[in-house]
Amino acid sequence: VFRHYLYCVVATKKYNATKCRRIHIKYGDKDFARKCLNKILKIDPEETSAWSNIIFLCNSSGKYERAIELSNDLIQIHPYYSILYNNRGEAYFHLGKFDLALKDINH
């Protein structure tokens, strides 16, 4: 149960990984969001939602090849976690690999 409720302490408030990412990306602080997610991954390296958010950050920072690489690794471990396909599909789209993007988005 604990692994699904990992928290990152930000300004004395607790946010789950997704909320942490959204808050800091919304305000343009991607580096702080990445640091927050990395802290979560140090606690639990298998926290899939944190990895998914790292991939999201890669996409939003233009690091599409890295997003694809991370997605591929995680899809091998969690083949039914659909957000991984969506994240990878977005990276393929930005790289102009539309057939692969469509395949992932429709997965």
Structure description:
It is a single chain. Mean pLDDT is 77; it is low at 1-15. By secondary structure, the chain is mainly α. Helix 1 packs parallel to helix 3 (48-60), helix 2 (30-43) runs antiparallel to helix 3 and helix 3 (48-60) packs parallel to helix 5. It has 6 helices and 2 strands. 67% of the residues lie in helices and 6% in strands. The chain is globular. The chain has a two-stranded antiparallel sheet.
> Biggest β-sheet: count, sense, barrel?
2 strands, antiparallel
Distance between the termini: 28 Å
Q: For the residues shown, what is the average pLDDT?
A: 77
Q: Regarding quaternary structure, how should these chains be classified? A: single chain
Percent of residues in beta strands: 5-15%
Q: How many distinct helices? A: 6
**How many β-strand stretches?**
2
Helix percent reads 55-70%
Structural shape: globular
Spatially, the strands of the biggest sheet line up as 1-2
Order of helices and strands: EEHHHHHH
